[in-house]
Structures are given as C-alpha cells and as structure tokens.
Sequence to fold (178 residues):
Amino acid sequence: MAEHSRSHGSDLLKFRLSLRGGLRAGEISALRVEDMLSSNGSISDTIEVRTLKQRYSNRTRHVDMHPEIREALAQLLADHPTATQVAFSVGRDGKPRHQSASCVTNWFHRLYKNAGLLGCSSHSGRRTFATDVARQLPAHQGSLRDLQIVMGHARIGSTECYLEPSDKMGQIIRSLGS
Fold:
C-alpha cells in the first residue's frame, strides 16, 4: 500500500476491515466513522455493520474490532479528523470523496494487481478472515455458527464456501484421542 497516497489512512483501514474484520466491499463503502466509535466519541470495541441490500433484510451485526483495525482507524482520524465515511479517496483539491461499493471493489482489484497477486478480489481478505477465524474456533470454544453470524450469512452453507481446506488433515486425524 502506497504510504504516499493522499488517502493512505482510508486505504489502510479498508484493507484491514476486509482482512481482519471480514467485511464485504459494499459494507466497507457504507461504513461511517461513527459506526466504529462509542457514544463518547472514543474508538469502540465493536464495529456496527449494516447490511443495506434488501435480500439481507437490513440487518445490523456487530463485529469485534481487531487491534489492527483500531490502529488504522486512529491513523485515519489523525490524518482526516473530520472524515465521516471510512471509504474515500482524496482529490487533488484535498477533499475526501466517498467511494461507492464498486469503487471499493475496483480499489481492491488494483491493490492486489499492483502487489502481483493475480486472481485476488475484494472478497479475498474476507475469505482469508473466515478461514483464519475458523481455524481458531476450537481453541476458543467457538463454533461455525459463531463465524456465520460474524460473516453476516443467512445460511451456514454460505460460510462453509469461504473456508480453505487444511493441508494438515493427516496430522489432525493422527492426534485424535491423544
């Protein structure tokens, strides 16, 4: 990520919301700074994610804030104290311009392409998040249902599609009963 970008704080936060929060490009676009702040204006422990599409029934879910997201939000607020939206680009005039869901999707595509990561999309961070969390669930007495809720899926089958298989199955099977 280019630190010389005029919207570095927003760029870093968008990336971390995908990778460490599992948010969709459309959810990142719709996210407001106030959705990440507590009532006294300090950074909250959770992110209020509103799903705006009708097919998702305008549900709201709360996602725990990862420390890397907290750090990126603090950076965004330091760089742009009057920012109201999370996803924006800064124009030549220095003014932030909100990014639509398609702009955020395109931003992720360019980010991964410039990093030489072919085949990655705006959903790549979300899939990585789901797989990483799923692998930690047993250690924290969590279930796939917990992950389903965090991901905002109506059906558990949707959550399962995000998960990458482990190359450690032999090791896992051999450890049973040990």
Summary: Residues 35 and 48 are 5 Å apart (CA to CA). The first helix runs from residue 8 to 21. The chain has two domains: 8-120, 125-175.
